[in-house]
Structure formats: C-alpha cells, structure tokens
Design brief:
123 residues; mainly alpha; Arc Repressor Mutant, subunit A; three-stranded antiparallel beta sheet; 5 helices; elongated
Length: 123
C-alpha cells in the first residue's frame, strides 16, 4: 500500500516536472500566476500555432498544474497552486537533505583541522 502511494506520487512528480520542462509551458504557467486567461491570450506571445499551444495546455492540465473551463467559445485557464506546492515540497526536501550533508561535511572538516593542529609537526 505504501509502495503504491510512493509510486503514484513519483508518477505525479514526473508528470509535473515534465510539464515544467518546456519553456513554452513555463511561460504559460508564469502568465497564469498573475490570474486566469483565455487560451488565445496564453498562445499570443508564443512562436507557435493555437493548436500547438492547446497541446501544451493539455500537458499542463494532465499534470494538474492548470484547469480550464469553456464558456461559449472561450476556454479560460487558471493555475492550480496545489500542484506547484507539491513540486516545492519535493525541492525543499532535497535542499534540506543537502544542507544536512554539507553541515556534516563542515563538522568533519573542522574535526580534521583540529586534529591536524595538535599533531606535533613543526611546519
């Protein structure tokens, strides 16, 4: 049960980071961080066709980063902050691990330095 949860979480993170790996999709997320926008507005600054931009939005939606709603002929997209929080938690956990490792390395180097000071050598 725990392994299945971890694998599902890993799949979700893979999908999330895959979605954020593309510069066009990151630009869309960046724009949506300022508020909802219609697909045409998200596609306008990008060097691609509207159908190509919609494919990128599909990837963002599949990753849970974006949700969209169609009213009449206009599809409006909005960001899903919970998905970004999941990525942030994963990144913060890695940063904490490395900070602890570097702290331990610093302590070890201080120990070596202090042992070297009392070795009796006359340099």
């Amino acid at each position: 049960m725990i392994l299945r949860h971890m694998l599902n979480q890993s799949t979700d993170l893979n999908r999330l980071f895959h979605a954020l790996a593309d510069p066009a999709r990151r630009a869309m997320v960046e724009r949506l961080s300022r508020g909802p926008a219609p697909v045409s507005e998200l596609a306008r600054p990008l060097p691609m066709s509207l159908p190509a931009a919609m494919q990128h939005l599909d990837v963002l939606e599949a990753a849970g980063l974006v949700r969209s709603e169609k009213v009449g002929r206009v599809r409006t997209c909005a960001i899903e902050p919970q998905a970004l929080s999941q990525a942030e938690r994963w990144i913060n956990a890695r940063r904490t691990e490395w900070e602890h490792r570097l702290d331990r390395l610093g302590e070890y180097l201080k120990t070596l330095e202090s042992e070297g000071d009392g070795d009796g050598s006359d340099e």
